[in-house]
Amino acid sequence: MFIIGNFIGALATVISMVLTIYMWVVIARAVLSWVSPDPYNPIVRFINNITDPVLNWVRMKLPINFGGIDLSPMIVILAIIFLQQFLVASLTSLARSLL
Description:
Elements: H1 2-34, H2 42-61, E1 65-66, E2 69-70, H3 72-98
Antiparallel strand pairs: 1-2
């Protein structure tokens, strides 16, 4: 059973890292929206391509827009924090119980 416990622990670590990186990408997207970056810049295009599917889905499901301020990045960041606190913590606890 220790192999399954180690696998689940490693999976929890990878999920936590991916969620943290994605949260920073969403934060970068929000900061970029305050300035007017070159839309043809490869970094800007990469950030937009990575975050657009999730942000557009949130905008479609929860049309939260107050006076031109888009709150969808905040909703996504809160969802990421929830997943880190619930999913990653649950997987880590499960992995410890299997060791």
